[in-house]
C-alpha cells in the first residue's frame, strides 16, 4: 500500500531541452520586454500576428507533433522549455492551447483529422479549446452543451466559455454530449458567425478569452473525434494543460521574485534599503524556496510525463506546488511594494492577476491534492 | 570511470545483501534518533560497533583516498550504499561530525600528516569527533567566539568554554574555533581553527539534559589546556575561513562526506501509516478529508526536496541562481521535517498526551521525541532564521540585515 508513497524523482534534461530553453528565453526577452506587455494589454489581441508567425517559423507549435504529420516528433518535455520563458515574460501566446489541441487529436483524432489538422497546426494554424461551461466546474465531464444529428450535420447547442484566443483560432475543439455520451468535436473558424463569439473580461489582462454561443452552429459529422476515446482525450487534455500551465507559472514566478528583489534593493526607508529588514527578507526567501521546489517538480513531471501513474502524480504535485508558490510571491509582491504596490502601474498586479488566472484553470492546489489523495492514499 | 547501469545495480544488490545479512540485533534499550542524542554507554557502543562494521565491509568512506584509509572508489557507489542504509532503516553513523565535517575538512585543508593521523580513525569510529563552535554567549553570532588560545612557545593554552558539544563526553578530538588575537579590530581575523585533543588535562565536558529528557551534548570547559601548535589547521588568524568551510559541509551545501546516514530519517509514508491506525469518529483518521489534504501537502514537499537534489545536479537548470538549491537545503528541509513531525503528533488524538515510557504512547513516543529533537536541526548549524539571512543576501543579493 505505502509503496505508492515512496517516490524517488528523476529528472532527464536533454540537449534539445537545454538549447530550446536558451533560444526561447532569448526570444521572449527580445520580443517581449516589459514595455511591450503594457502596450499589449490595450490591444485587441494577446500577441501580435508577426510574433506568432516567428514562433511558427521556429517550429514550436509542431515540437511535440510526430514527424509523419510535419512536426519535430519531440516530447512535451521540450514544449515545457518553450513555455516556461513565455511565462517569465508574460507572453500569452496560443502555443499552449494549440499544443493541447494537437495532443487531443493525436489521442482521439480520426486518421483524416490527424492528416489534415496536425500539419496545418505545424504550419501555423491557431487552435484553442472550448471545454469550460458557465457552471465553473473543473470536471471536464460536467457537460451541458450538446451535439445532435440534423440534416446530415452535427447541430451544436449551449454555451462554452473561457476560450483563449478564440477570435484568431482557426480551429476550436469543443466538448459536448452526443448521443448521451461525452464527445469532442472540431469547429472551424468558418463555421462560427461573428455574433456567436464575444470577448470576456478576465482577471489576467495579458490574455484574451471569449465566450462561444453554440446555438445555430452546425458542423460536418466528420468533425467528431473518435468518441470511444473521448475520456482518454479529456484526461490527456487535463494533464497536458496542467504540465504546460505549471511551466508558465514557474516562469512568471521567477519574474515576480526578480521584481520584488529589485524593489527591496532600491527602495529606502528610515535610511536603509528595505531589503535589509528581515520582515521582508525572510518571506522573500521562503517564496524563493517554494518556487525552487515547484520548478524541481515541474522538470520531474516533464521527465516522467508519459509514465502512466507516475506522470499524473508528478504533474498534479507540480501544479499544486507551483500555484501555491506563485500566489504566495505575487501576493507578497503587492504588499512589499507598499503604496506603489496598490497602483495599476506597479507590475505586482500583473503577477497577482496571472496567478489567480492559473489557479482558475485546470484545478487549484486543493483540487489536485484531492486527486492525489485518491491516487495515493 | 563511468559505470554502466548494470554494474550499479549489481553493486546495489551487493550492498543490500550485505546489509540484510548483517543487520544488527534490535536493541532492548531506547535508541537515539540521531548522532546528537547519544546519551548512554550502551547506545554509544552499539552504534560505534555498527559504524566499524560498515567501514570494514567497505561501505563507508568509499570515495575517500585509499592511502588514508578510504576506499578509493567512486562517489556514486557511496551514494548507493548510503541510500540503501537510509531506505533500509539501518542505524546511523555515530561519528557524524568526523564523517561529514571534520573528515572532508582535513582532506581538503589538512597537512599530509593530519590526513594520515586522523582519517582512518574517523571512518572506523575509533576516534570520535566533536565540534567546538558555539559558546554560551555566542551562538548565531559565531564570528564573536571568545574562547582564548594563547601562544606559549610551541603550544597554545586554551581557556574558556564551548557549548552544545555533541558527543563531547565520548570524543577524542574536537574541531575548535578559538580566539588567538583578542586585540585585532576585525573580529574575524582574530580567530584560528584547531584539531584539538579532548582526553587531556583540563578539558571537562559536562553533559546537558535536553528538552526530551535525554542527553547527548555537553558544555565543555577548558581550564588552561595546553595543546601543540601543530593542532592548527589553515594557519593562525585564518579560523573564520576554515569555519565557513566547515559550515558548508554541515549545511550540506558542499559534498565530500564519507557517507552513511547520520540520523533516523522520518518519511511521510510513516506518518500516513500513523493516520491509518489512529481512529477519528470511529474511522481511520486517513479517511478524514482535512487530514488527507495535509498528508498530501507533506508528501508533495518531501518529493520536492528530493527533486531539488536531483535538479541541483543539472547545471543548466540552476544557471540563474547556482547555489540556491544547495544553500536552501537545510533551512527548507529541516523546517519541513519539523512540521511533519508535529503533524504526526496531531494525528494521535487523545493518545498524543503520552510520552516515551508509557505503553499507550503511539510508536513508543517516537513522534514526540522526533518533534522535540528536530529543533536541533532548525537551531544547530545556523538557525533557520540565520539561513534565511544567508540565502537572502548571498542568493538574492539583498542587503545585509
Could you give a short account of the major beta sheet of chain A?
Answer: 6 strands, mixed
Q: How many helix segments of chain A? A: 12
Broad structural category of chain A: alpha+beta
What assembly state would you assign to the polypeptide chains in this entry?
heterodimer
Offer a few descriptive terms.
A: 377 residues; alpha+beta; Butyryl-Coa Dehydrogenase, subunit A, domain 1; Butyryl-CoA Dehydrogenase, subunit A, domain 2; Butyryl-CoA Dehydrogenase, subunit A, domain 3; six-stranded mixed β-sheet; three-stranded antiparallel β-sheet; 12 helices; B: 401 residues; four-stranded antiparallel β-sheet; 9 strands; 42% helix
Quickly describe the structure:
By secondary structure, chain A is an alpha+beta fold.
Task: Characterise this structure.
The complex is a heterodimer of chains A (377) and B (401). Chain A is an alpha+beta fold and 377 residues long. Chain A folds into three domains: 2-125, Acyl-CoA dehydrogenase/oxidase, N-terminal domain (Butyryl-Coa Dehydrogenase, subunit A, domain 1, Orthogonal Bundle); 129-228, Butyryl-CoA Dehydrogenase, subunit A, domain 2; 231-376, Butyryl-CoA Dehydrogenase, subunit A, domain 3 (Up-down Bundle), CATH 1.20.140. Helices cover 51% and strands 14% of the residues of chain A. Chain A has helices at residues 15-31, 34-41, 49-57, 76-88, 95-108, 111-122, 230-264, 278-304, 308-336, 338-341, 348-360, 365-376, and strands at 127-130, 146-150, 153-157, 159-164, 171-178, 181-188, 197-199, 209-213, 218-220, 268-269, 272-273. In chain A, the strands form three sheets. In chain A, strands 1, 2, 3, 5, 6 and 9 form a six-stranded mixed β-sheet that branches. A three-stranded antiparallel β-sheet of chain A has the order 4-8-7, with no helix packed on it. In chain A, strands 10-11 form a two-stranded antiparallel ribbon. In chain B, strand 8 and strand 9 (283-284) form a beta hairpin. In chain B, helix 1 packs across helix 3 and helix 9 packs antiparallel against helix 10. Chain B is α+β, with helices and mostly antiparallel strands and 401 residues long. Chains A and B meet through helix 7, strand 11, helix 8, helix 9 and helix 12 of A and helix 7, helix 8, helix 9 and helix 11 of B.
